[in-house]
Amino acid sequence: MKSRAAVAFAPGKPLKIVEIDVAPPKKGEVLVKITHTGVCHTDAFTLSGDDPEGVFPAVLGHEGGGVVVEVGRGCNQPETWRPCYSIVYGGVRRV
After folding, report:
1. Sign of torsion, CA 15 20 22 23?
2. What is the CATH number of the domain that holds 58?
3. Domain of 82, in residue numbers
4. How many CB atoms lie within 10 A of CB 49?
5. Domains in the chain, number
6. pLDDT in tens, the chain (95 residues)
7. CB neighbourhood size of 31 (10 A)
C-alpha cells in the first residue's frame, strides 16, 4: 500500500514529504494508521547528524498513536498498548 511520510534523507537537511510503500503485516504483526506522532529530542539528535547510530533515509517520530487497520495471520485480537521506555530499557508496558 502507499502512504505519505516526512522523510529525512540526510542530516541537517529539511524533511521531504514523499510517497512510500508500506508492506502488509506479517504473521503476528499489525498495521497501524498513525494519526498522531511527536518529534522528540531523540529525533532532533538524529536529524542533526550528531547521532552516531543515525541512519538515513529515515522516517522520524517514534512516539505515535493510531488505529489498527489490518492484522497479520495469527493475530486475532490486537491489544491496546503503550510502549514505555521501550527503546532505552527494552520493555513494554501494557495498559
Report:
1. negative
2. 3.90.180.10
3. 2-94
4. 14
5. 1
6. 899 989 999 999 999 999 999 999 999 888 888 888 888 888 999 999 999 988 999 988 878 888 889 989 988 776 666 655 444 444 444 44
7. 17
